[in-house]
Design a protein that fits this description.
Blueprint: H1 13-42, H2 49-87, H3 90-117, H4 119-125, H5 133-143, H6 147-161, H7 166-190, H8 195-217, H9 235-269, H10 272-309, H11 312-339, H12 341-346, H13 352-365, H14 369-384, H15 388-409, H16 411-414, H17 417-446
């Protein structure tokens, strides 16, 4: 394809992937700082740190749902754009992006209205107690005012990355995160706003990120531009976006479901202390799974482009590279979690009881983390090649079908320990099932098809 900018069908596969993955991984890590830095600061508020941290933990499922709606549009539309670019059809790629943006705005408005109307009963349903509700309510009231900012920043940034502008995509979240980190201590401590200050800093930072994304996608620097003529929804196109985006959506929704079940179960068996410990563990999971997600996201445009261009040997090479790096990284983090769990917990809270109860919980939770990384790698392959059914199924399998029921059942015999065991079991079963399926149904069959040959119908 002569003259194609950011042509991933040429050059080193590993270089193409890492050129995108390094800035995207940095962006993913920095993006996590939006919420994690809030929790670090709030966990150290004099006298109320433990309750404030637990209150923020109650809001995680709502934040996860909002992120899921953004992923519905971003992870649904961006891979389709990559495949269209591989085919050389930039006009259709722009229409996909325009429809994704319109869908994103509509869902953002609906989500804001829904959670604002039902905020109090939802927070209590998600595990709030009379002592922690005030903190969860203060944070969520302000955060929801910036829902559209969050969704535009998160949902449209994949369209920058899918065009090969990894560094520009990284700047989207770096600018916002740096602003958030600077504003947090000013609002929380200097101005004495506490939880409200953390939420306000996040909203302002995400607003700046959203403006940055829109400015780039409407500029001449972009290969695919966000045009007014492409915003009108078209049923067939929207269904394709939603079909593929359901994977990312269900991943966030099932994360939210499991978090709700975990909070409610831990509240019942262990009280606010264990809800706070789960908040810390979830924060660590977010930080340490983001590089895996960044590598997966970096490989998706490369695999999708080559798939659309009929370069199947290069698709297989991208799978081998991304899986290998993912496993090595996950093993390094697993070793840290097993060897120095106390140090990891103290980043968020240094109360003796939190550390004492948190160490065994953290070791159990991350005991089989390597297998979860296999699921993320395998599911990333399904998404990059447009395999929506498989991607959706494995999103549901680990969390909704395995984890959530075990989180309710195991504590009957094991108490709070059962909640953390349920996560480890789901990582093992879900990870192996997803990876083996990807290998059997995608990787091996692609090896039997020569480049530029028509694909068999089942592929």
């Amino acid at each position: 394809m002569p003259g194609v900018k950011n042509d991933f069908s040429k050059g080193s596969i590993s270089k193409n992937i890492m050129t995108l993955a390094i800035p995207m991984t940095a962006a993913q890590l920095v993006n996590v700082l939006y919420s994690v830095v809030d929790r670090i600061y709030l966990g150290r508020l004099p006298g109320t740190g433990h309750l404030a941290l637990t209150g923020i933990g109650i809001t995680i499922p709502i934040v996860s749902i909002i992120m899921g709606l953004a992923n519905l549009c971003g992870t649904g539309g961006a891979p389709l754009c990559s495949i269209c670019r591989g085919h050389g059809d930039n006009e259709e790629a722009e229409r996909v992006m325009g429809n994704s943006f319109t869908l994103l705005v509509l869902l953002g408005v609906l989500a804001t209205a829904f959670f604002m109307l039902l905020q109090e009963p939802i927070l209590y349903l998600f595990g709030a107690s009379p002592d922690t509700f005030i903190y969860a309510d203060q944070y969520m009231t302000i955060y929801l005012c910036g829902t559209l900012f969050v969704m535009i920043s998160l949902g449209m940034n994949p369209f920058i990355n899918s065009q090969g502008f990894g560094r520009m995509g990284m700047l989207t979240v770096v600018i916002g995160a740096v602003l958030n980190i600077v504003l947090d201590p000013i609002f929380i401590f200097l101005l004495g706003m506490g939880v409200r200050g953390a939420a306000l800093a996040t909203v302002i930072a995400q607003g700046v990120s959203a403006v940055w994304v829109l400015q780039f996608l409407t500029s001449r620097r972009a290969i695919l531009r966000l045009r007014r003529s492409c915003l009108r929804l078209q049923r067939r196109r929207v269904l394709r976006i939603i079909s593929l985006g359901l994977s990312g959506f269900f991943m966030n929704m099932t994360n939210s479901l499991v978090q709700v079940v975990c909070n409610a179960t831990l509240q019942s068996y262990g009280g606010d202390l264990y809800v706070g410990i789960m908040t810390i563990i979830n924060s660590l999971r977010e930080v340490f799974s983001m590089p895996v997600q960044g590598l997966t996201n970096g490989s998706q445009p490369v695999a999708g482009f080559n798939y659309g261009a009929g370069k199947y040997s290069r698709v297989r090479e991208s799978i081998r590279f991304s899986v290998g790096v993912t496993v090595v990284y996950a093993t390094v983090f697993w070793a840290l979690a097993m060897l120095v769990p106390g140090l990891l917990i103290q980043v968020f809270n240094n109360e003796a009881e939190v550390i004492e109860k948190g160490i065994p919980a953290l070791r159990i939770y991350f005991g089989l983390f390597v297998f979860m990384s296999l699921q993320m790698a395998g599911q990333g392959v399904f998404v990059s090649l447009g395999r929506s059914k498989q991607a959706v199924f494995f999103s549901l399998l680990r969390k909704a079908i395995i984890n959530a029921p075990l989180t309710v059942i195991l504590p009957i015999w094991m108490g709070t320990t059962g909640v953390f065991v349920a996560e480890a079991v789901s990582q093992l079963v879900g990870g192996l099932a997803c990876f083996v399926t990807m290998y059997v149904t995608v990787y091996r069959p692609l090896g039997k098809v020569a480049d530029d040959e028509p694909l068999p119908q089942h592929l």
